[in-house]
Amino acid sequence: MSAPREWAGRRLGAVPGGADDGDGTFRVVGKAMPRVDAVAKVTGTTVYADDLSFPGTLHCVLLRSPRPHARIRSIDVQEAAGLPGVVAVLTGAAMPTRFGVSPSSEEEQALAADKVRYVGEPVAAVAARDEATAREACKMIHVDYELLEPVTSIDRALEVPMDEPIHASSRDSNIHRLAAVEFGDVEEGFAASDHVREDVFFYEGSNHLAMEEHSATAIFSDGQLTVWSSTQSPHSVHRALSSVVGLPMGHVRVVATPHGGGFGGKVDPCAHEIVVAKLAMITGRPVKCTLTREEVFYNHRGRHPVLMWVRTGVTRDGRIRAMHFRTALDGGAHGSLGAATTYYTGALQPATYDLPAYRFEGCRVFTNKAPCGPKRGHGTPQPRFALELHLDKLAEDLGMDPVELRRRNYVRPNSRTVNGLRITSCAIEKVTDEVLAASGYSRRERREGHGQGFAVSAYLCGAGTPMYLNRMPHSEVALKVDRGGVTVFCGATDIGQGSDSVLATLVAEELGLERSDVRLVTGDTGLTPVDLGSYSSRVTFMAGNAAIEAARKMRTTLAAAAAEHSGGRPAEMTVAGGRIGPLSFEEAVAAAEELYGTLGSVGSYAPPPGISTSKYRGSAVGPSPAFSFSAAVVDLDADRVSGEVRVNKVWIAHDIGRALNPVLVRGQVEGGVYMGLGEALMEAQAYRNGLLHHPSVLEYKTPLSSDMPEIEYLIVEQPDPEGPYGAKEVGQGPLLPVVPAVVSAIHDALGVWVDEVPVTPDKILRALDARARGNDPRTGPRAFPKIPYPPCEKVAIPDAATAAV
Amino acid sequence: MLRLRVNGETHETLAESSETLLEILRERLGLTGTKHGCEVGECGACTVLLDGAPVLACLVLPDQIEGAEVTTVEGLADGSALHPLQEAFVALGASQCGYCTAGMLLSAKALLDEQPDPTRDEIRAALAGNVCRCTGYASIVDAVAQAARTLQGAR
């Protein structure tokens, strides 16, 4: 094995005339400022993917399967191809190469050729002079399906397939992925416990419902393919396109257009992106495809429905001795990022609680439904929901305050979890204190129908390993500085979270400029160095550190030139307020160009070695350069007659390290709370016999402005040693504690448990009814299925010496 | 030939009888600031003002707009001077991905034209037909309230 790569973070040394002017204050960092693209967005001038138009564009419509599971006997496109205005008709036979967002999931075809696996799977595509003609032509395509038995539940998927497995690659079953790992000795831990409890929970799947429907346009000219798309990961689309259409990466350019919302739904390379590319290559004309809202629901890649079983042993004084956690994920028809999702359902339980022994067994099955994938929180909201409620119940068993039970088990800063995760900065105590103080949780009004619930969570600041195995940087930045100004080139993709604004903030701070002095070119694989994409809350941490490195190199260059020009020493050249030493920034740049020629600098980021010490199957999932911590209290009224819940207020405290821009932070926190409330109380991507119940905005319930309670957010700033200016993530963490806190508050109000989300009025009424009949006062799954997990891989607990961080 | 005024400018354009105002704005007049999130009247993204009243452009057909005055997001600012609603959305981060923003702004303008001093609940009710997935709505409600104060101060 070759020597480990030098960690990019190590190169971030102190630079003379450091950006904080030595007194810890900053000029741009930490200031509440509008987004850099805010004016364009409020004036309607931002050009999103579907706003693009090129002369001579053909419009593409996909024909989708009306069957959940069927073999394709034949596809007859002759009639469609003959319709006036139709330029090309495409089927899967033309694109046999399979693809997927990660190497473990390369089983999708852009257009299904052999069989269809869910209602809505694309089987053919038409390019025509206009959308109406293309749609008409789709009706003239005749697909002969041989129907197969659809598999529509986890239980069915675990049975021996009636006809054939959904994927041939999964051999004789519909199990996609199994995980089984044990850290320490769980049985010994249970034996040493004073009390052991088991619970079963279910978390329903949900869609991202980004307001912008996916859209892509492709042009093929002079051997070069360019695709503009509303993607969160132009790099992933770049790789998939190159592989499927058979062009070298260097002949393919993917431009991430300004983005109308992602939340994980635009991380996977999608069928329409590949189809427009192929059609552009066939027709020689620009080809565009914009999905309808219904199609977005079929494209999905949303939250996995997860059934969970958890068993925990505690001592009388509330110390956890052992935990055993099992999950079963309903993955839908394809892999997507589902292997990672499976591991994520077990990875972060030890990131909040110090578990002396932990066993995790996970299982993802294929079903004939739209493929699940990553959605905000990726595989962790479900186990967080289960774990937090399970701890509430344990506290009740012990007659202990649920907050105190948690505190006795909290992870500590600068520690190593049982599954080998490195925890550095950690304000879990502080977020707990803040949210309790603000909400008055311990003094809450106790009356029937009113309640409060508390929960905590942790999330990563970027996945520690890339989606495909490699040792290259996760994020790269190039900086161009000359008499024409400062331009940052970075593959990072602003999906509304404000990553462009973050990059401008960091570079402006480093170069002593205003944010408006920094031009940005981002998310364009033809122009910008690689960034892996906007997922796993990685962009501020990774692209941010890469940008800082590039900017510090440039600052050193400019300071040297200014020193030489003015006869001083580089260390005396203060970089601030648009000046470098005695020179204006522009004069310093001119001096540097005279001395050195073309000015450019680069920076990159890869997570440091040592963020995980344990190696086991699945150990790539979980490690991160830093973790954020969140705590929430939810106050609500629950009506025991109607079963209706009205959330009055949510307090959320978030450990962000440093808030680089409070305006952006607020948006992420409140948006996360909002999405958590939606998943707790109404959102459901639910099916009946393989058919999606709600493929429309009207029927897929989400909270509206009139449903939203007041949100009080508390930002805890304890700078992380490796984050850019100490910053950590905020895009995903604040969603996580909200869901269990809602259900906990319902229990506080009515004394019943609803162990599955979304909590709808009927579930509350059923639990109340059960109590009235003297039965277990709960609604939720009764049992966890028998799953053929493999024998657990036994992993030694990191010892104290190696755990030193 | 359809004749209508959009943001004070008179347009004459061809339009199929089944073509929606959304399609006419985006595809015939090149006004792509108006967005679509469903095209069946469920998400509010395409909200524009028709003779001052908020409508969903995806549900409006040509014979409903002959001679009408349409206001879109492109017509809110006075030259380069932003409308107070736009200023407040910028300052408070009420636009994140920005895709619902045009519809939000026009629903909010319709409210403030009718009710210059709305309560927060009135703002929430007026925007309840506009879905936003980024903000959690709080910054949007704040922005509308701030714009109301600015507009009142200017009166």
Please provide a written account of the structure.
The complex is a heterodimer of chains A (805) and B (155). With 805 residues, chain A is an alpha+beta fold. Chain A folds into 3 domains: 8-30 and 472-605, Aldehyde oxidase/xanthine dehydrogenase, molybdopterin binding domain (Aldehyde Oxidoreductase, domain 4), CATH 3.30.365; 49-148 and 208-299, Aldehyde Oxidoreductase, domain 3, CATH 3.90.1170; 306-465 and 612-795, Aldehyde Oxidoreductase, domain 4 (2-Layer Sandwich), CATH 3.30.365. Chain A is built from 20 helices and 34 strands. Chain A has a 7-stranded mixed beta sheet. In chain A, helix 11 packs parallel to helix 18 (738-750) and helix 14 runs parallel beside helix 15. The longest helix of chain A is centred in the last third of the chain and has 28 residues, at 539-566. Chain A is globular and about 85 Å long. The model of chain A is unreliable at 1-22 and 801-805 (pLDDT under 50). With 155 residues, chain B is of the alpha+beta class. Chain B has 2 domains: 2-75, Roll (Ubiquitin-like (UB roll)), CATH 3.10.20.30; 84-154, [2Fe-2S]-binding domain (DNA polymerase, domain 1, Orthogonal Bundle). Chain B contains 5 helices and 5 strands; from the N terminus they run E-E-H-E-E-E-H-H-H-H. In chain B, a hairpin with a 2-residue loop joins strand 3 and strand 4 (53-56). In chain B, helix 2 packs antiparallel against helix 5 (138-154). The chains are: A alpha+beta (805), B alpha+beta (155). At the A-B interface, helix 1 and helix 17 of A face helix 2, helix 3, helix 4 and helix 5 of B.
